[in-house]
Amino acid sequence: MIERNMTKKGYSMDQKATSEDRAEALRLRTLSALRTLVERTREFQLPEFLDAIEPSRGKLEENVHQVLVVGEAKRGKSTFVNALIGRDLLPTNVDIATSQVFRICPAEREAYRLRFEDDSTMAIKVEDLPRYGSQVMADIEGAPQLGEIIRWIEVDVPTRFLPRNVRILDTPGLGALYAAHATITHRFVPHADAVIFVLDSQAPISEPEMRFVEEILKVTPNIFFIQTKIDQFRKEDWQEVLRRNEEILKQRFSDRLTDHRVWPISSTNLRKAAETGDDDYVVVSRHKQLAAALQAFLFRVCGWSRTAEAILLADRQHSQGRKTLEQRLQNLIEESNEKRAEIQRLVSERRRQFEEDWGERGQKQRELLEAIQEKIRIGRQHLFQALASGGDIERQHQAMIDQKTSLKEIEELANSLPAQVMGAALETWRRIQHSVRDQCVQLLVPFVNAADAMVHIGNNQSLSMDLYQAGAIQLQGNHFDRWLTRIRVSLNYGSTVWTFAALSQFILISGGALTAPIFPPTLIPLFMSALWHGWIAATRNELINAKRELSTRMTALVHDVRRQFFEVDAVRGQQSLVDEYFDGLSERVTETIRKIVNQRLADNQAEINHLDEQARLDDHQRQSQAERLRQQLAAWDNLGQEIRAIQAELRELEKIATLAG
Q1: Which of 332, 416, 418, 441 has its CA 20 to 30 A from that of 61?
Q2: Whether the Cβ atoms of residue 175 and residue 72 lie closer than 8 Å to each other
Q3: How far apart are alpha carbons 468 and 441 in whole angstroms?
Q4: Three-state DSSP class for 285?
């Protein structure tokens, strides 16, 4: 067990048993417990819960954390990542580099490659890193193929300050590509275990930065804030900015952020530490404090949750397995032949009823699939209505146009409108996907309960649905990336991302000097008054015309986006993007039902075989078989004790990590 000396200020621990070491020990113990659980489940011929544990076990074995680094341009984001690497590797002053994502992986040998959307790769040299900043290769003309669109640039290098099991995703600077916020959020944040949000020491967090925090919080509350460039300002100045940052974050996001603290860092001094090997630079960089806090943060949001999820699933399956073993033993020592016959009849009757209700031609399965198709139909309809003429997205952006009060504001909106419309469409689509998927899961609950009840004779308590939601029923899969790729490939950006030239006739006002004849002094005020009122009227008309033109283009843009969602590509033989997703969802639901039915029928047949075998035993054989079952129960209980011990230590370690953080 963990030895500790808790104090009101924190904790002290044996130097050989740090939180990191103990978290790693618990991860390994959990993996061992999961392996034993799977082995004994099969050895004892117990019902298997549809590989519910395998996804969690896979994450534990991989033990890799994806950390997304985001921030406004010029906040020192790439400089910070370079400092973690220990060398100036990522471009920090090349504009084209800001449009691409870099994936940093600690490795013994250097390697650089482009990872394309079709998962193919192309090796490049370190000096090529600044070249490949655009999403599409520079020499591609027309609509690109999947093998021509860069997902990210992979950088495998030895790192001085980056943990070996952390992968850094350095994203584009948000200031330069503000219109790409939605794409960045929806594409990368859902796949990140944690998000590092980079602020700097010049001024407190800005309103655009807080809006992006809002976007991230729609996906995850796990954001770790750092403040760079502390070496460029007086201590009292950057500390005041840090204090204001924490104050603002707490006031605005206290109910949604897991942690509103901000950790200072001097990337410059950390970089010098790597160059010189002088640990004094590490001290003044404040990296040790940040690294400890980040370690505790990652443990809470990644390491602890992964281990806790896996051990929870193990505990649930262990509980169900014990009920089966207990029932087998009870059936075996039952002395009444009539009672044993009744149990056999009950098992067979449950099987018959389950097949009649939920089998391939079962009425309840047919009703369930029809209900799921109705949810899918409604989801498809909601998206179409949102993108239709006069729909939510068009009304939302028309309101934005109507609120503008100057030509400059119209120009700014025109430049960002295409990405805003696409971002709104993607956000609507994401909400609809999640809603339909969650409704499908809820529709499956009665079926899962019925399947569970058929297995556990004499016990109507079913396996909790959250077990299936956590592992067995995976309805979304990884299709969103592929789906988003098709959006990017099929969307003709030339028709949606326009220049402002078409509106310039309404906006550009001559700034040249007046060359009119000289008027008598007494007429100058009158002339200037008429000129001023005429200019106001002209400006007002220009604003009205600019809004009208922008509204027309916005309507065309929404129509174009709707077409990309719903258009069928007959030439390539592709469904519409929406149909592809929903048909895939329907197939996954149907496959899940089929898999559960087959698994539970097999489990039920195994119990029937056990009962038939027991019915043929004589008294001596029955006693021997009972003793074997008692030994199995004892071994199963020992495993249960280990599972509960891991759960207790996880709770204890979480408390310690919370105090340390």
Answers
A1: 441
A2: yes
A3: 9
A4: helix
